[in-house]
Amino acid sequence: MGCNQPKAPETSAAPAATLASYFADSETGVQDGNVQVIPISTPKGQFKVWTKRFGNNPKIKVLLLNGGPGATHEYFECFENFLPKEGIEFIYYDQLGCGNSDNPKDTSMWSLPRYVEEVEQVRQALKLDNTNFYLLGHSWGGILAAEYAFKYQQNLKGLIISNMMMSCPDYGRYAQDVLAKQMKPEVLAEIRQLEAKKDFSNPRYMGLLEPNFYAEHLCRIVPNPEPVSRSLGKMNQSLYVTMQGPSEFGVAGKLAKWDRVPDLPKLAVPVLSIGGKYDTMDPAHMRMIATKVQKGNSLICPKGSHMSMYDDQQTYFTGLIRFLKAVDAGTVQPGAAL
């Protein structure tokens, strides 16, 4: 077991012949941009979720799990600038209640175990298996990816937990004990007053959080990159509040007691834990994840926040690509240079 921050050398583009196959038409009939709408069975009936495949690589297929919960796949659009030139296939996916997928508008369906089964149905429909299936979950998607791996790691080739701690109580404590103390006392006092009154719909609440917390720890590029603003602007508030709580400033929803740190040693699949120095999540905790799993590496982006794929892109994508290629080649070693 080990923890390692990959170096950031230049990456080489895939050979032309490989890229030709990567971008080759693989659909029959009407071409629709590799969109596949997948039927999902749930205890409340049948629904449909939206996926879109980018590129074709039989050996590396990365399914992306968005955060929120309740955001959309759209903030992952920056991946298009980095993964295709390396010949790495990735798949956009809007979870049920998100983006282009069905929205049952039933809060009883916003549950972690049900979402795990949804991911498994998506995997089966996309014909992903342990020879090619990499799961990358960001933020809430990191919780979902980890929970999927605890149940179904036999289907995975690699797991990437991006910008997420494996304990929501620890996340809450980090927000309270570390990040809150970095705020101006008068700002924090007013935020706490609004929270005590549960006045979360008051525009003043987000008006205080956005410049004093979000711009420091969620995404340090202000205004946010357009795909981030577009995705977060479509947030399913019912799903978000039910699972997360009223804001990113700690956690108060159904996930408040979720803690999988004791179970991390059960993960035998190669794991990359990514975080940012300025993240809403504790960088030390995200390094620790890599030391607890059986085959772990960590990548802490020195300029990054919760959206490290935007505010520290070169570090984020160099490390991610290096990990994917090392797992594919069978050369990834716990604690070794990627």
Automatic annotation (TrEMBL):
Gene3D superfamilies: alpha/beta hydrolase. One of its GO terms (molecular function) is hydrolase activity. Pfam families: Abhydrolase_1 (PF00561). The keyword RNA-binding does not apply. Keywords: Hydrolase. The keyword Hydrolase applies. It comes from the Bacteria. Belongs to the peptidase S33 family. This is Proline iminopeptidase-family hydrolase.
